[in-house]
Amino acid sequence: QETIKIAGIYTVPVEQQWVSRIHIAAEAAKAAGGVDYTYTENVANTDYPRVMREYCESGVNLIVGEIFGAEAEAREVCAEYPDVKFLLGSSFMPDEAVPNLAVFDNYIQDASYLSGIIAGAMTQTGSIGMVGGFPIPEVNRLMNAFMAGARETRPDAKFQVSFIGSWFDPPKAKETAFAMIDGGADLLYAERFGVSDAAKEKGALAIGNVIDTQADYPDTVVASALWHFEPTLNAALEAIRAGSFKADNYGVYSFMKAGGCSLAPLGTFEGKVPEAAMKLVAEKEAAIKDGSFTVAIDDTEPKSS
Amino acid sequence: MSDLFDILLSVSFWAAAIRIASPLIFATMGELICERAGVLNLGIEGIMVIGAFAGWMAVYLGAPLWLGVTAAMAAGMLFGLLHATLTVPFGLSQHVVGLGVTMLATSTSYFAYRLALPEVTSPPKITPFAPMDLPVLSDIPFFGPVLFQQTALTWAALICAGLVGFVLFRTPLGLAVRAAGENPAAVEAQGLSVTGLRMGAVIVGSGLMAVGGSFLTLSAFSSFFFEMVNGRGWICIALVVFGAWRPGKAVLGALLFAAFDALQIRLQQTPLGAHLPYQAFLMAPYLLSILALILMSRRAEVPAALMVPYRKGER
Amino acid sequence: MRLDPIAAPSLRRQIGLPALALLATIAVAMMLALIAGANPLATLGLIAKGAVGSKFAALETLNRATPLIFTGLAVAVAFRAKLWNIGAEAQLYAGAIVAVLLGTGVLGAPLVLPVSALAAMLAGALVLLGPVMLKTRLGVDEVVTTLLLNFVMLLFVSYLLEGPMKDPMGMGWPKSAALVKEARLPRIVDGLRLHWGFALALIAAVAVWVIQTRSTLGFEMRAVGQNREAARFAGMPVNVVLVKTALLSGGLAALAGWSEVAGLKGHLSSDLSPGFGYTGIIVAMLALLHPLGVVLSALFVAAIFVGSDSMSRAAGVPTYIADMLLATALLFMVLALMLTRYRVVWK
Amino acid sequence: MTDPRDVVMRLDRITKRFGALTANDAISLTLRRGEVVALLGENGAGKTTLMNILFGHYVADDGRVEVFGQPLSPGNPRAALAAGVGMVHQHFTLADNLTVLDNIRLGTESLLSRGASRAAARARVDRLSRDFGLAVHPDARVGSLTVGERQRVEILKALYRDARILILDEPTAVLTPQEAEALFATLRRAIAQGLSILFISHKLHEVMAIADRCVVLRHGKVVGEVTTAETSGAALAAMMVGGEIALPEARPATAGKVLMRLDGVTTPDKGAAPGLKRVTLDLRAGEIVGLAGVSGNGQAALADLISGLILPGSGSVTMDGPLARWSPREAIRQGIARIPEDRHKTGTIADFTLTENAVLEGYWQPGFSKAGLMDWRAAEGFAQGIIAAYDVRCPGPGARIRLLSGGNMQKLILGRVLEPGPKIILANQPVRGLDVGAIAYVQSRLIAARDGGAAVLLISEDLDEIMGLADVIHVMSEGRLSPGFPRGSKTAAELGLWMAGQGFDHAA
Ligand SMILES: Nc1ncnc2c1ncn2[C@@H]1O[C@H](COP(=O)(O)OP(=O)(O)OP(=O)(O)O)[C@@H](O)[C@H]1O
Ligand SMILES: Nc1ncnc2c1ncn2[C@@H]1O[C@H](COP(=O)(O)OP(=O)(O)OP(=O)(O)O)[C@@H](O)[C@H]1O
Ligand SMILES: [Mg+2]
Ligand SMILES: [Mg+2]
């Protein structure tokens, strides 16, 4: 069988939570064999189509990445290189006219919802702080699901929401989190790096997002909603090998049903979360998996309450 | 309204303001020294990045925290040396060299980081400076927690500002540096080396900028992030002008700016925050800086030879 | 060390030194490749290949040069008059906003391109006019005000894109609606990204050159830049000249944003420019503020960046090497250009 | 001759080239203890260059400098200062934003030390001020000082460092006669204390008054050396230019109609500089009006007003009827030729070519531009014409004007403003810093313009110049203008009293 050459094109460094999940999955696929993987990070959206073309010209088979900021142009590139397959993060639907482009997004609202249930049970004050980078759909969606989950166990929960206008300013995220703790929050939703640090310093709790950081904050991070890119990538690789790759929406591979997201193990907080809440989590998880319950997908900007 | 008063009277607000101001104070002092000697150092943003990186990397590799600060300073001075060599004896455009140094220092940091840590998918952490809980002093109501629960690096920032003020205005060296920024010919005619003074100022100033950068990775946070300096260097350039090239006023400016930042973070949670777009809050510190510049424009005294290269033997 | 001016630099010096600067950059590239564990001997070839090695590569280089020519011209015009406009970035976005406002269906076919271009220039000019007024009226330092306005403008764009200008069809991502087809600048070569914005940039460079060397306004701008007091004494309307300079400079910077939106992107996002406004300063100074030189230096900057970026991928070196090499090339080049006119004397 | 041990400084065959130009050509010179040597020469003869070599600003291509018998290391002002050489530069080297005391202390203490106490330094400055008659306030900011005060600071700087040799490059070029007198008093005290002085000036009467010996340079070479007692001003002048100078002889004027009238004009004060106080003045065709007075008494306001830079606060200015608009351009349009006080700062743009400077104020006129586009060919023709007619010595119209000497720069300005045939000429300190030959030339041009029917307003601090040229003399003091005195009706002493503000009380 022929090796599939994958190229990753990321608009941020690979340490960025979101991209790190794609990167890890691709590295894993490479380690598993049959796949070759190179990547370019920190590509400005202006340069994104150029880099895509360059990889296409260099003969890669599959390009993974994110084209939220360069949709129109990126789709043009896809159309111009029909032999190359594209698996790209995008807010838009797949397009039959561009059969070599499949889209995905981090639809991990299921896990976020479950982490919210735990959060609602763990907050004493009922005030929860949420620090985000920008109010984009990928962020809003998870925040909204988290808030819905929290209201399950804490119907009167109050939320403080802030956006710091940057993806890469942990000191600022930390200051914002400090301010929320001053404002009464005892539990923080850590969408950005820096938030858990503030929680740790002030003895508050935190809920992780996309990645599991409990190892760094054993007394702080209670639970995390994890994104697993492996199902998405593996589905794409299989389709390529089978010759059946087509314009498709791979978003569902991030759903819990598909194993695209999960609640991180409680770890150090094992036994510290109220029984009732854990029972609810288990119930809901089962319901999500058997399809009897779906977490709403809400991309609107969350507001403080 | 009452929200605003609650915020302004809270301990944590003022503690936050001082914390946010600390890196700005270091870097502003650095820029101020350069400009006092007649050199506009637009390399500041990049030098802060290299400082954040070098300081963090040193500690990550096992150095004690203060050695990390020293490493940051050394890295900053190295790029300061580059800036100074090109702008002072060679007299190249301070704009180009500054932006070039920013680009070079930033990309060098990222390049080196990636070479050193090629496989990370989550930024590694170090143990940063901890707030110093000084017995007795920390217990003073209000001022105790505001002032005495900062990290040692915040204290270093305040001391540094005092020292810069002292050296600039109370010693022969400071006099010579200031004169180099006012009229290099006068310095030359008094038997001093303009080149030496300006280069020295740029190198030392750049060292301070880098320490400001290292505050972000060694005190404010514990990892190095790409783009984490996030325009703070440019703010410091404005703060120098805002402070009318005086260390005391510049520190005040930094505190004011930081206070606005701390305030906007908190105001986002008030009913006001629900009505205004968050960008309005983020904009406020910049707009207020411009406003302040307008208000004090009449009194500001730009160093007369700022941005004017000095070539010996040319009139 | 002393620098002695050279009255008439020899051709050898004028060509040799810049060539040396390029060689030194290549040497740095090789050294960095070696450090990164790649094959240093391949770097030169890969950079050249990435910058101009194929039609695709060459056109990408021209593409990237386009906004840089505009911002470079904007800075050259302003700096000539000693108006330190560090705010081309903000003016660029002003032009981009106008391109979207007028290009999303408000105006029809023959009118939309010229009208929106002019309106964009006006918007950029207005952004610069504020700091210039503050400077002429109150003596507020424009380095700082134009610099700070960059941040304000970026936040304003972010607000627009999450608020009033958000694309209703954009699935929530903060970007503007797409321009209608008539509002797009056509491509010069079908299938490749190069658009007529590049041609417009060349025309702008020639126009600025004519203005600076042939027109009375150009004469006034240079005079005001060199010696404001003498210009005022000679009867030049100094403030009016500064305002005109601001209009021209801000307008040119705005065209950068306008042509990026109308020619390349088709919509506005808050990361439209990876610092074109700042790079414009470097481009302009590298050209010694000469409008035609700006074209060359913009091409140089674009080629170095695109070439080294491509090399980083081909050689497997961290992508940040592109910026490192660009910065290195710039610093070497300004030094070389200065040394064509001065001789270093060690005493 | 005196004992050779008395030689404090010896320049030995100093040569300095700037490109093709040899500014100093094997110049040798000695200075003895307590002696005053004057260095004379036309503009551009190489005087300043020689001093800059001696002080270490420039490095000589050849030759050596010896101070107190020790060779001085070249290109090192620090060494010169340490050897006891102090220099007052032609263009002052002071930091405006610093105080007098800081300017003086600058560089006198080890940079790494804490520095001596301010009080001690101030006491020392105070003592020196008293001893040498150099009154300045140590805490004043230099930027707020008059030119004369700045010069005192420059001298204090040298004395503070125990200079034994003092070099003064055109110290009186920008001083009022009173200030110049005070300077000479100071210098005499310095000589009495054993200092030696090397002194550059274009004012031969000063040279005759204070110098023991004169060294004359021409084209970078020493062309003569004489003891002052054995020569005369005229002989020195001839030696400088290498021939006789025809001094302009003013014939009596035939005044015509009033071309400009100021009636009770008052203008606001500008900082320390007073504005005009109800000034009434007539400028008539074919007449030179001389404005005498100590600088800083409102002359600047009057010049700015006529130049179009400021408007009268009250009172009226009429030229063929009241002025509707007033600006520099309007003044040019009305036929006013303006020779500015400072040719470097306001008169020219240093990095512009002669052509560009020639059309600096007329570029908008039909001859030089059409539809907003410059006609550079016409402009260059205009510049060529001036260069030829006014004998501007330069490489050509395309050369940058900064390469010209002050005198030649002034000739270009003269041509620029006189060529269009002005009705009124404002000549503000037109010969400041020029050599005797250039002075004679400029003055003869002004007289020729008057004879051609122009009204001339000559502003000068040099009473001799005023008395020699002006048909009518006014004196200015604190913004007030004296009545006009016809040529020869007042003695210098009488005018001096007016300058001190005395007549005004009766007149007002
Ligand atoms: N820095 C310089 N670079 C090039 N040429 C110079 C420089 N300084 C002086 N010169 C040349 O040397 C010549 C002598 O200049 P210098 O300043 O010594 O004249 P000067 O005798 O002091 O004239 P003045 O009486 O006008 O002060 C000038 O004609 C000029 O061409
Ligand atoms: N940058 C320069 N390059 C070449 N020559 C110069 C330069 N600057 C000055 N000079 C020369 O040095 C000489 C002295 O210059 P300076 O500035 O003292 O003018 P000046 O002739 O003394 O006029 P003024 O008396 O009005 O000051 C001039 O003759 C000029 O030719
Ligand atoms: Mg001279
Ligand atoms: Mg002179």
UniProtKB/TrEMBL annotation, chain B:
Organism domain of life: Bacteria
Membrane topology type: Multi-pass membrane protein
Signal peptide from the UniProt entry: none
Organism: Gemmobacter lutimaris
GO molecular function: transmembrane transporter activity
Transmembrane segments: 6-27, 39-59, 65-84, 96-117, 155-177, 197-221, 233-258, 278-297
Keywords, in A-Z order: Cell membrane, Membrane, Transmembrane, Transmembrane helix
A family per Pfam: BPD_transp_2
GO CC terms, sorted: plasma membrane
InterPro entries registered for this protein in UniProt: ABC_transp_permease
Subcellular compartments: Cell membrane
PANTHER family in the record: ABC TRANSPORTER PERMEASE PROTEIN, SUGAR ABC TRANSPORTER INTEGRAL MEMBRANE PROTEIN-RELATED
Protein name as catalogued: ABC transporter permease
Main location: membrane
Phylogenetic placement of the source organism: Bacteria, Pseudomonadati, Pseudomonadota, Alphaproteobacteria, Rhodobacterales
TrEMBL record, chain C:
Record's bilayer topology term: Multi-pass membrane protein
Keyword Transmembrane appears in the UniProt entry: yes
GO molecular function, one term: transmembrane transporter activity
InterPro entries: ABC_transp_permease
Keywords: Cell membrane, Membrane, Transmembrane, Transmembrane helix
Chief localisation class: membrane
Keyword presence, Transmembrane: yes
Subcellular location field: Cell membrane
Residue intervals passing through the bilayer: 20-42, 62-79, 91-109, 115-134, 143-161, 194-212, 233-258, 278-305, 317-339
Pfam family, one: BPD_transp_2
Listed GO CC annotations: plasma membrane
Protein name (Swiss-Prot/TrEMBL): ABC transporter permease
Organism of origin: Gemmobacter lutimaris
Taxonomic classification: Bacteria, Pseudomonadati, Pseudomonadota, Alphaproteobacteria, Rhodobacterales
From TrEMBL, chain D:
Domain ABC transporter span(s) in chain numbering: 9-244, 260-503
GO cellular component terms attached to this protein's record: plasma membrane
Database matches in PROSITE patterns: ABC_TRANSPORTER_1, ABC_TRANSPORTER_2
Membrane topology type: Peripheral membrane protein
Keywords linked to the UniProt accession: ATP-binding, Cell membrane, Membrane, Nucleotide-binding, Repeat, Sugar transport, Translocase, Transport
Main location: membrane
Compartments (UniProt record): Cell membrane
InterPro entries cross-referenced by the UniProt entry: AAA+_ATPase, ABC_carbohydrate_import_ATPase, ABC_transporter-like_ATP-bd, ABC_transporter-like_CS, P-loop_NTPase
Signal sequence bounds: none
GO molecular function, one term: ATP binding
Pfam families: ABC_tran
Protein name as it appears in the record: ABC transporter ATP-binding protein
Species name: Gemmobacter lutimaris
